[in-house]
Design goal:
2 domains; Rossmann fold; single chain; 403 residues
Length: 403
């Protein structure tokens, strides 16, 4: 069953958190984003296209009435439910005129909130049933990208989360982001998604795992990226095996065009499984001697595992020659070319992480965002070529065997 995707808009963080708690009791509802003012609400709604927006009226920057009006025009498939305190009847009338479908008087109970959302969603679904066109099931050709390093703190999670978002925005395809840093993964924090279940909960049902069950364990970022979070507690990592990871990736391949995997800085069996199954490995380094030593050791191990050299792409993060090591010296030491340079921009990266708004969405003019978007474009271009080659191969087989 499709989950009802909800965005919460209120200028008070405590109120947003309380609403998320109230909604956590209903399995059909998933909070995919939140905003503190009308401008943020419009941005998130245009990106995520949720089913429901819960909209407060009185907010800074842009109020709920103006935001409702713009959302109703720009994203007509999204339904706005207004949240208001008693005595705001004139505001309420204006909001309904602006396009809101329903209203809730604050304070409201969990039952009132959930009932209103379900009723509004069901009514809107019935309205659209008559104009809907049955979808033909698409054959999925997946590409698996693992973001890896043999050194912690080099920016794997920043790169993997922004890369997943950039690909989702550029292609409008289904993108999954898996956090395989099983002890200390923070992809969910980086993207500010609400975590109900993690990969450690999923493996309890691994024997029944299929595409439908997988969907219950993935959480949605407002960019459309679906995230499988790392365990909440480090000790849960020991229960996750290589065979679990293999089954999870194979299941994701049935439904997702791109699978981006963030990993720990180790050759643990779970990470090795991801590396083995990947079409491409983005091997992240920085330009300091301890990291370069570890990257060299990692490349030696990959060579002993007989990974093709073209499968491994060196991504130099926080790239700068100002601290004494030249790019050419780096390449000569590793005997491997630098595939991509991601410049240093701590302010953009840290602000983005703290707000949960990936910089490839909000700071596209920065050099760091352009670098990640360029990586995304290369991945997309390569997949397009791979898909065309597979189509030609199938076409050739059809001609040979006459089917």
């Amino acid at each position: 069953m499709e989950k009802i995707k909800v965005v919460i808009v209120d200028d008070t963080e405590e109120t947003r958190n309380n609403i998320k708690t109230l909604l956590s009791f209903e399995k059909r509802i998933e909070v995919i984003g939140e905003a503190s003012n009308g401008e943020e609400a419009i941005f998130i709604t245009k990106e995520a296209r949720p089913h429901i927006v819960l909209m407060d009226i009185n907010m800074p920057v842009m109020d709920g009435i103006k935001a409702t009006e713009e959302i109703s025009v720009a994203v007509p498939e999204t339904t706005v439910i207004i949240m208001s305190v008693q005595g705001e009847h004139e505001y309420l009338r204006k909001a309904m005129s602006a396009g809101a479908r329903e209203f809730l008087n604050k304070p409201f109970s969990s039952d009132d909130l959930i009932r209103t959302i379900l009723k509004t969603y069901d009514l809107e679904s019935k309205r659209r049933e008559h104009s809907s066109i049955p979808k033909v099931k698409e054959e999925i050709k997946s590409k698996i990208i693992t973001v890896f390093s043999t050194k912690g703190g080099v920016g794997k999670t920043t790169i993997s989360s922004n890369l997943a978002v950039a690909i989702a925005r550029a292609t409008k395809k289904r993108v999954a982001l898996v956090d395989l840093d099983l002890q200390f993964g923070d992809t969910a924090i980086m993207l500010n998604v609400s975590v109900k279940n993690t990969i450690s909960d999923l493996i309890k049902e691994i024997s029944q795992l299929d595409g439908d069950l997988m969907e219950d364990y993935l959480v949605t970022h407002f960019s459309g990226v679906r995230v499988l979070p790392a365990p909440i507690k480090p000790e849960y990592a020991e229960y996750i095996t290589a065979s679990h990871v293999e089954k999870i990736i194979k299941t994701l391949k049935e439904s997702y065009h791109y699978i981006i995997i963030d990993t720990s800085a180790s050759f643990h069996e779970t990470v090795l499984t991801s590396l083995d199954m990947s079409d491409r490995i983005l091997f992240v380094s920085t330009l300091d001697l301890p990291t370069i030593k570890n990257i060299k050791s990692g490349l030696d191990i990959m060579e002993s595992l007989h990974y093709p050299k073209e499968k491994i792409n060196i991504v130099l993060n926080k790239a700068s020659e100002q601290f004494g090591i030249k790019y050419k010296d780096f390449e000569n030491t590793l005997k491997h070319p630098i595939w991509s340079f991601v410049p240093e921009d701590s302010q953009t990266v840290i602000t983005s992480a703290n707000k949960g708004f990936p910089f490839v969405m909000t700071r596209t003019e920065t050099k760091v965002a352009k670098a990640i978007i360029n990586i995304a474009n290369e991945v997309i271009k390569e997949k397009d070529i791979m898909d065309k080659d597979k189509d030609k191969e199938k076409s050739g087989l059809k001609k040979i065997f006459g089917f």
